[in-house]
TrEMBL record:
Reactions catalysed: 4-imidazolone-5-propanoate + H2O = N-formimidoyl-L-glutamate
Family annotation (CDD domains): Imidazolone-5PH (cd01296)
Binding site for N-formimidoyl-L-glutamate: Y146, N328, G330
GO cellular component terms, A-Z: cytoplasm
Name this protein carries in UniProt: Imidazolonepropionase
Main localization of the protein described in the UniProt heading: cytoplasm
Entry cofactors: Zn(2+); Fe(3+)
Domain Aminodeoxyfutalosine deaminase/Imidazolonepropionase-like composite: 31-54
Keyword Membrane part of the UniProt annotation: no
Native organism taxonomy: Bacteria, Bacillati, Chloroflexota, Anaerolineae, Anaerolineales
EC annotation from Swiss-Prot or TrEMBL: 3.5.2.7
Organism of derivation: Levilinea saccharolytica
MF annotations from Gene Ontology: imidazolonepropionase activity; iron ion binding; zinc ion binding
This protein's pathway: Amino-acid degradation; L-histidine degradation into L-glutamate; N-formimidoyl-L-glutamate from L-histidine: step 3/3
Amino acid sequence: MLIHSASQLLTLPGGPQRGRELGRLGIIPNGAVLVRGGKIAAVGSTAELRADFPNEPALDAGGKVVMPGFVDPHTHLVWAGDRAAEFEMRLEGKTYLEIMAAGGGIVSTVRATRQASLETLKDQTRARMRSLLRHGTTTAEAKTGYGLETQSELHQMQVLLELDAEGGLELVPTFLGAHAIPQETKDNPQAFTDQVVSEMLPALHAWWQAHGGQRPLPYVDVFCETGAFSLEQSRQILTAAKALGFPLKIHADEFDNLGGASLAAELGAASADHLVKTSAADIAALARSNTVAVALPCTPFGLADPHYTPARAILEADGLLAVASDINPGTAWCESMQFVIALACRYLRLTPAQAVAAATINAAAAVGRAERVGSLELGKQADLLILSVDDYRHLGYRFGTNLVQTVIKRGQILPA
Ligand SMILES: N=CN[C@@H](CCC(=O)O)C(=O)O
Ligand SMILES: [Zn+2]
């Protein structure tokens, strides 16, 4: 299939974009892309590709933007129920950490999720996945983390693998058994940390040998935060995971600066996420590493908190920056990377070009898939979008409407 007559074909060439390089879109005006066998077979001008492939079935992009599908590198997609009541409590003055300390927050979603059957969890998660796809996300990282005990966490992992196997939105699984301290051990975070290390991670490893098929091991993540896991406990969990061969991620500096970003850099984690209260020393450590800094602007927006990730400082330091939705039932039920881009332009002070690169090729790097998705380059997976606009800067500029007209996943046009 030859997709032609794109006003702007955004190719995002040359791999992940560090520091001031961020925003290299590789725009081909009046561009075209040849898709064969679910992969990108050629990119160029419409005139060139039409001359070279005259008999190829054609799809007219109609003078609109064509670009890679968004990669959402941080989601909590699997949960049951909702927390609308907590939203209201926050508006009335309670903080997220206060609600969490009083037995609400993450553990209240844990109660609902533990009770839900596999089919219920799949149905509720599938509905969100479809919405992500309609908004242009073609690959998403997805975390467990609403079980907080081995069987329930593995149940959520099973949901993720089964939904991924259905096709459509492609999922990159992450194990987040260390998402919060469960009610059972709420006065003893160290006991739960020890349980994650000695029971959950080995069980996950064994489960993966039986159920993971050919897939690489999933990421292991931890919520390093006041009221969740301390820096030392996070180190214990991530070090144990690394020893078992798992690739790593961390939630760091959402509310307090505990040093989780430096820990991520030291352990070679794929990403460190949130990074709102990150110190200059942590930023420098990240910038010296290949750990991607993942900003989640929907989260402070969702909490009506004025503090956002210091994205410009990360870029000045020559760090790798990506953006993600952080979709979750507590702080940020947002299915749209377009909205993430709109927030990133305003609150992270990124240009639309920087935000687009942070939501595609750099986001792919944050989930270890930069060789396969996130750009339109020869041999990569044909995951692409046709927008309803002729200038990519409408991403960021406009918000609250879906500017994605057509989604193509592995070369297949998805039903609208
Ligand atoms: N901060 C920790 N985890 C999620 C929130 C999850 C929830 O509140 O249910 C986050 O990344 O924002
Ligand atoms: Zn998260």
